Automatic annotation (TrEMBL):
Keyword Cell inner membrane in record: yes
Protein name per its UniProtKB record: Cell division protein FtsX
Compartments in which it is found: Cell inner membrane
Keywords: Cell cycle, Cell division, Cell inner membrane, Cell membrane, Membrane, Transmembrane, Transmembrane helix
Function description: Part of the ABC transporter FtsEX involved in cellular division.
Family indicated by similarity: Belongs to the ABC-4 integral membrane protein family. FtsX subfamily.
Membrane topology: Multi-pass membrane protein
Organism, scientific name: Novilysobacter selenitireducens
Membrane-spanning intervals of the chain: 40-63, 187-208, 239-265, 285-308
Length: 321
């Protein structure tokens, strides 16, 4: 009976792993030094990348805020049923109770003419007109009773049914324009995705061109390393970290620019929303989104540097004669 074979880590394998980790650490730190050693070139590269990243990110952020606002509208699926002027309070209450027992109706709110007049006075911007009506000495409120019906299922079918009620005068249903709004939002998100791909490719090319210039400056050093038997991975590694740092800095700068833009627009937009009786306010990116954006920008820089470096090494790799 033979003993089972065991795998041991030899000192030579340990030294290889240690050298691999040491070179990663050296490349990680040295790439920062190369960036800081060329501040103007670095600032130009990072700035161009940041603009390319900020455009689709800004569009995405704006659409996210619009979609959040539209979400409140979509949740408000009420169908407004204006009753005929001949319907009195008892008949309106009885109709509301009947609709509450309908399986297709989730809730019914009855609003009296006095409540409608008060709402017009407070929120409709028609306070002076309402006061003018009062000054005419009208004994009766001209507004009808109103039923706000919240559907439990398909609001279109329910609106058609409510329109056929003998007590109903006008039925208002806003599903059509909400569907158009959804369509525009879907188009905007698709446009943001297309811009992200195109401008992301442009950002990768910017990093690639910067890394290419750095490779040209170190051409002799790379040639010596190739003659000494250095692998492509060993030669490529510092440039990969350099591209990642470019992307990381560009992503952070793009987020900084977008945050400044959001702060500049938040106050006037809040005032505009308040004039319509809304508490809507701009929201920035969530922390998880910020992390994902920065990491994606770093990966984009890494990819651009890897493509350029790999192409150069394929062209200059020594061949046996």
């Amino acid at each position: 009976m033979t003993a089972p074979a065991t795998h041991t880590v030899t000192p030579r394998s340990r030294s290889r792993i240690g050298a691999w980790l040491d070179h990663h650490a050296y490349s990680f730190v040295a790439s920062i030094g190369r960036m800081l050693g060329k501040p103007w070139a670095t600032l130009l590269t990072v700035g161009v990348m940041a603009v390319a990243l900020a455009l689709p990110l800004g569009l995405w952020g704006a659409l996210s805020n619009v979609e959040r606002l539209a979400g409140d509208v979509r949740q408000s699926r009420q169908v407004s049923v204006f009753l005929q002027s001949s319907v009195d309070a008892g008949q309106a209450a009885a109709l509301a109770d009947t609709l509450r027992g309908d399986a297709d109706v989730a809730a019914v709110e009855l609003r009296t003419p006095d409540q409608g007049l008060a709402e017009l006075h407070e929120r409709g911007g028609l306070g002076e007109a309402v006061d003018a009506l009062d000054s005419l000495g009208l004994d009766e409120n001209p507004l009808p009773y109103l039923l706000l019906v919240t559907p439990a299922g398909d609001e279109r079918l329910l609106a058609d049914r409510l329109q056929s009620l003998p007590q109903a005068d006008v039925v208002q249903h806003d599903a059509a324009w909400r569907e158009r709004l959804d369509g525009w939002l879907r188009f905007g998100l698709r446009l943001a995705a297309v811009l992200a791909v195109l401008l992301g490719l442009g950002a990768a090319l910017v990093v690639g061109n910067t890394v290419r210039l750095d490779i040209q400056q170190r051409r002799e050093e790379i040639g010596v390393l190739q003659l000494l038997g250095a692998t492509d991975g060993f030669i490529r590694r510092p440039f990969l970290y350099l591209g990642a740092w470019y992307g990381l800095a560009a992503g952070a700068l793009a987020l900084l620019v977008l945050t400044g833009t959001q702060l500049a627009l938040r106050a006037p937009l809040a005032e505009l929303a308040a004039s319509y009786g809304s508490d809507f306010a701009l929201r920035g990116f969530a922390p998880l989104h910020v992390l994902a954006i920065v990491l994606a920008a770093a990966a984009l820089g890494w990819l651009g540097a890897g493509l350029v470096t790999g192409h150069y090494l394929r062209q200059t790799r020594p061949t046996d004669t």
